[in-house]
Amino acid sequence: MWWVILFTLLLACQGQNKAGDYPDYLRVADKDDVPTLDPALGYDTASWQFEDLIFETLVDYGDDGAIVGELAQKWTNNKDGTRFTFALRDDAFFSHGRPVTAHDVRFGLTRVVARHGGSPGREFFLSIRGAAACETAGCEVSGISIPDEHTLVIELEQPDPLLLHKLALPFASAVPPEVIEKIRDDFGFNPIGSGPFKLVERIPGQRLVFVPNPYYRAPRPVQLPGIVRFVGVTEDLAWMRYRMGLLDLATIPTAEFPLVAHDARLRSYVHSVDALRTQYVGLNCTRPPLDDIRVRQALNYAVDRAKLLAILNDRGTTARGVIPPTMPGYREHDPVYPLDRERAKQLLQQAGVGEGFQATLWLRNDETAMRIAQSIQQDWALVGVRIRLKPLAWGPFLDAVRHDRSVDMFLLGWEADFPDPSNFLDVLFHSRQIGINNHTYYASNEVDALLDQAATTSDPEKRSKLYREAEARIVRDAPWVFLYHPKTFLITSRRVRGFRLHPWRPPRLAHVWIEDGGQ
User: Fold this and answer.
1) Is 88 buried (19+), middle (13-18) or exposed (0-12) by CB count in 10 A?
2) Which residues are paired to 72 by β-bridges?
3) CA quadruple 227, 230, 231, 234: dihedral sign
4) What are the pLDDT digits (tens) for 244-278?
């Protein structure tokens, strides 16, 4: 009888998502919808993956992680690194047919730095002279000038060795002002960009459909007829549809991973990379009793991280701090919080909550997150901490974490936007990021001072030392429960060619192609 039920569910899912209607497209799926396709507002891997299809930035990353030109065909900078001049390609066109100019790049940047724009990327670009004074999109920023239609000059208040990395982020995409002024808040649902693809259909809760931008003229041509991204497909259901030949890309459920590892045919289609990512439980440092450092340290001591990795079939490494071991300059050290339940109980007793306490752990509603959360829930119960789990869809979960100060704790991960410690430490722990990206409301004058000093230090060794000291203080203060650094595994169908994983960016779907005779 089980196979009858399974077959019925698969037919129902096929009917809802019309999987059979896109045999020539690259077919991907996820349980949750994409939060936004507005590059000024998206700051999650799902949004970035599909913004990457639609938009272009001045520079981008090559497969080896090196900075390469995208809209910019070349660039120069002065000796002290405070003035950058970008020469734009003259063959870039938005998907509605208009040529891209330096004005469109400038407008995109003003949307991000505008004080009232609400962009989570604003802090990245405040080193641009005059950016901090920008109030609304389209404002005049003294540090951005346009000598001609295809030249953009950016001048900085002080040297920023990471500027090119920041300009490779989707936040810095070129966007058409006339479209945004016309549709305003609907731009995230009806985006227009100059990237290799354009969105032609979006049915919330069902699918997004992308086809090639007919005006795209970049050196690397598009070889896919289209991409469809189905919504509402759980990991297990996605796996079944992959095995039936209805999906071209899938994650591997934990229960299926040993089977794939021992199946030579399937194993040949597996792609893996050590991600620049840290999984953690964020603790609201303003809510009692989590406002007590001893309680936060106790929660760290009480987690069995070896058990977590066993749940994941050892697809990762134990976290010993904020920074993942794949970060350039990472230095190995002993665990700061080994499993020590007696120490956890002592700290809770010292904090006046020796009898334990109750709290709610918010998380994304997917199978892997639930299994991790349940394991942590069991660990904390052994030291008297009673946790209620609150799973939500991805979009509402992110919204709650970012804006609801009543959230006690949340299970989340952070993947680097670029390979530098500042992208973890500054973005997530500096007090000026409270209300933007510092969702634990952690504030430390000592850490702020170290991060500010590191940001203006050009000597690499001194800079690394400052970041290591800042991280050590953050780990001591424990605004996170540090869990593990995952290794990414994805599997493609036999017909997919050219697929690559990137260590800190979502897979570049626009660069793959399909050959006949597939799965």
Assistant:
1) buried
2) 88
3) negative
4) 999 999 999 988 999 998 999 999 999 999 889 99
